[in-house]
Amino acid sequence: MIGIVxxxxxGVGKGTQAARLKEAxxxxxxxxxxxxxxxxxxxxxxxxxxxxxxxxGSLVPDALVGEVVESALSxxxxxxxxxxxxxxxxxxxxxxxxxxxxxxxxxxxxVLARTGLTLDHVVLLDxxxxxxxxxxxxxxxxxxxxxxxxxxxxxxxxxxxxDACGNPIVQRPDDxxxxxxxxxxxxxxxxxxxxxEYGRRGILRTVDGSGDxxxxxxxxxxxxxxxxx
Length: 229
Ligand code: AP5
Known about the structure:
By secondary structure, this protein is α/β, with parallel strands linked by helices. It is built from 9 helices and 8 strands.
């Protein structure tokens, strides 16, 4: 089983590339941001606890996201990676948006030790600040299923309507100017330092996230070993 973490600043394209990598390598994909946004949409107790924190652009507490990741990886390890009803076992896991603090690195180490899963590649997807800002300010998402769009590079077939489910497309609450500024600062202070730690462990792969999604994906695939399944 292969284990991959995607690191990178807000808006660099982690979600866009994770969807492709998941498909290409048959991975179980966990985006902590997606799980937390879904909890907010569902109005669950978890959603109620994290809504305001997420909208402000700050990080939710380590222990809360740690529980989400522990639960997903434990299921994967216990089931030998065969989700009920699919018949096909994922060939590994892809974490997108976790870990993003030193404390979360320790949580992930503990979960991996407990489950017997291993982390093979930590991919730092990076791009200049102006590229990241353009992607964030132009991003639109389906308010229902979370499908991703962009006002320039990925328009829906019918303006304002999700191609996948037909529901309205909106701007993410944390893509406001104020929240984006906060997220970029939090990334520099809390998450960027993790690259050095994974570099010391010899599993850091740095990938240029600029250019069109296909070009980025080709570089990403090559960085993690490249073979399509
Ligand atoms: P999260 O959802 O993880 O957000 P993020 O890390 O800020 O990343 P984004 O989702 O903003 O961007 P992305 O890199 O996925 O880019 P995307 O593919 O969408 O977290 C959100 C919040 O949840 C956090 O702020 C925090 O509060 C909380 N949270 C989550 N995880 C947590 C954790 N571990 N600990 C604590 N709190 C946590 O692309 C952006 C746009 O660009 C899209 O419109 C896309 O279409 C476009 N695009 C992408 N690639 C390209 C390309 N190559 N060319 C042109 N356009 C492109």
